[in-house]
C-alpha cells in the first residue's frame, strides 16, 4: 500500500520547527560560551560522540598496523628465509670444524711429540702396505707435500718404525724394523748394554718381534728393560725408543751371548700417521 504524500503546509510546518530549534540551540550555546561554559546540548553530544570517536580512532589505528604489516610481510618472510639459511650454513660449518678438531686431535695423539735438537719432522700418512720376501713394507706420503729422502728415519709417538729406502718426491717406501734386511744398534736404557737389533725368527706370536744379540761383556738384561737406539749410525740418532724386553734367553750360537726378545714400541701392524726425520741421514 502506497503512503500518502505529505502536503506542502506540513513540510513548511516541520521546517519552521527545525529552524526554531536551531535558533534556540544556537542562542543557548552562545549564552553558555559567554559564561565560559558548555551548553547542555554540547555536553550531551560529546557524551554520545566520544565513545564513537574513540572506537573509530582505535579501529583506524589497528587498521593502519594491519596494513603496514601486510606491506612488510613479504620482506619479513624473505629476511626470515635468509636468516634460516645463514643458521643452517653456520651449523654446517660448526659440524665441519668439529670434524677438523677430531682429526687434529687424532693426529696429535699419534704425533704429539717434538724431537729435540736440530732434527725437524715431516708428518706423513701411510697410503699402502706391501709384502716382500723379507717382510712387510709401508708406503707413506708427506702431509704437506715436502719431499722425502732415502735414509730418513720414520717413527711414531711411541717409537721407531724404520727408515725410508725408496723416495719419489713426497712419497716414500719404508722398511720396517721387523724386516729381515733391517738392523739397528740398540742400547738398554737401564744397564747401557749394547747390541745389534734385528727381526726375530718367526714365532707363533700375534705380532712380529725383535731380538738383540752380541751384548758386550757380562750383560745385564732383564724383562721390562727399555731399549733405545745407540746412536752408532748416521741414520738413527741416539735415544729413540725401539721397544721393551719381554724375554731373555741364551743365544743358540754361544752360551756367553744373551738374546733379548723385544716387543716394538710402535704398532708396526697398524701404521696410520708417522713422523719422518729428514735430517737424520
Shape from CA axes?
rod-shaped
Distance between the termini: 127 Å
Please state roughly what percent of the residues sit in beta strands, choosing from under 5%, 5-15%, 15-25%, 25-35%, 35-45% or over 45%: 25-35%
- The poorly predicted ranges are 113-119
Rounded mean pLDDT score: 79
Strand order of the largest sheet: 1-2-5-4-3-12
Assigned CATH superfamily of the largest domain = Rod shape-determining protein MreC, domain 2
- N to C succession of SSEs: HHEEEEEEEEEEEE
Number of strands: 12
Total DSSP helices: 2
CATH architecture of the largest domain: Beta Barrel
Radius of gyration: 50 Å
Report helical residue fraction: 25-40%
Strand count, sense and closure of the main sheet?
6 strands, antiparallel, barrel
Q: Class of the largest domain in CATH? A: Mainly Beta
Can you give a write-up of this model?
- This protein is of the alpha+beta class and 281 residues long.
- It has two domains: 70-112; 121-280, Rod shape-determining protein MreC, domain 2 (Thrombin, subunit H, Beta Barrel), CATH 2.40.10.350.
- It is 35% helix and 28% strand.
- Strand 10 and strand 11 form a beta hairpin.
- The longest helix is centred in the first third of the chain and has 72 residues, at 40-111.
- The model is unreliable at 113-119 (pLDDT under 50).
